[in-house]
Amino acid sequence: MAFCALVHSFFPTEFDYNVLSPTERKDNFELAFSTAEKKAGCDRLIEVEDMMVMGRKPDPMCVFTYVQSLYNHLRKFE
């Protein structure tokens, strides 16, 4: 849900964060990644399937790299 929270903070009208469920991990990743791609031109450095394969403990460096890239794109929309 962290990716959704980050994207939602820049594009709050794109989806209703309050209705998201933490148990719907795949849908949440897809929502966050596709919204960032569509609204801010953020390339997907991690695919949804990669996140799902990594399970509950994704590679911290992969996540950090993607979060950093997302933030660098998204902050242009502040």
UniProtKB/TrEMBL annotation:
Residues 1-75 form the Calponin-homology (CH) domain. It holds the Pfam family CH. InterPro entries: CH_dom (IPR001715), CH_dom_sf (IPR036872), F-actin_Monoox_Mical (IPR050540). SUPFAM superfamilies: Calponin-homology domain, CH-domain (SSF47576). It comes from the Eukaryota. PANTHER family: CALPONIN HOMOLOGY DOMAIN-CONTAINING PROTEIN DDB_G0272472-RELATED, SMOOTHELIN-LIKE PROTEIN 2. This is Smoothelin-like protein 2. It comes from Bagarius yarrelli (Goonch).
